[in-house]
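Supplementary Text 2. Reproducibility record for the structural model of the 383-residue chain.

All settings were left at their defaults, and a single model was retained for analysis rather than an ensemble. We include the record here because the model underlies the residue-level annotations in Supplementary Table 4.
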Amino acid sequence: MKRARRIIALAMVCSLIVCGGYFTSNATSVTELEAKKQQAINEKNSLQNEANELHSEYKDARTQYEEMKSQVDATDISVNQLSEEMSYLSQQLSEAKTSQAQMEAAMKLHIKYMYENDIINMLELLLESGSIAEFFERYEYLNMIIKYDRDMVSEYKKTQADIDVKSAEMSAKKAELEAKSAELTAKKQELKALVDNAGAELSDKNAEIISTQAEISAYDKQIAKMKEYEKQLATQNAASNYALARQIGNFPNMEDTSGALNGYTEDDLYLMAAIIDAEAGGEPYEGMIAVGSVVMNRIFSSKFPNTLSGVIYQKNQFEPVSSGRLQMILNRGPSAECFSAAREVLNGRRNTNRLFFWALWLAEQRGLVGTQDGEIIGTQFFF
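Retained model, structure tokens:
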């Protein structure tokens, strides 16, 4: 929503720039444009801070994701290695079973030879020995055959048992690693989603910053255009204003223009506050009083209209009337400080008896400062 409002505001600013030419009574003032520009700058700075935080979060999420990815990859490698070891053990177990079958076949032959024959024949074989030594030799031979068979069976059983134990351990370890891999993969996916979301938010925030910067640039262009327009009006009004001053020929004002505006109305107060705001809204308080003093001096002078509205709306005398800034302030309302200054001058306060004032830059440009009797209050020259 905020971004949509910014886009609309930017479009309005750009439309004012593109239209060019002269500003109507709906045009804003340089002061208000500067305030809006500063508001946009503050918003951009806020967005930049948010973008910096998002960038930090994105980097952290990315780091966590890379670390998790490395763990998953390492776990997968371990699972693959265990699978290879289990395949080797399975091959060993298969070979052991083959050896077992061969040993069982050999043992059956021994059993058939030794036990399925008449045991008497076996005894006769022993008794037929020519000597005791031959008898023990034949007996020992038979025992060696039996022992060999038993040893082979024991060795096979031990080998098979070792392989079974190790295979079971490997299977358990593989199951554990596969479970861990699945868990890490799930976390990796979660972190990947977090990284993607953080990246998307960062991208959106950067887009808002770009949009705000464009808005600031648009305000800069409009401010420059407004300043140039007001400068042109001030220059145009200055010629008429100075011609009137020369016609009056009253430097400084020698008439008594002091006093309060008796019976002034709320409308008078509102109009006085508006012209003060339009001409001295950015000036120090004494500068506001000075502008109000000039208006009051004119009302009480025989050379000008004797009403507040007559003085303010006299042709080519007050630039904000021509530029439309006065009407804009009348529409939105003067500031509280300008109301205070207006009330003081309407009640009789003066801090100058001058009848004219220009912006200081214009007075310097036209050679009034230093050559024309006058006084500087704030950034204005009163004469």
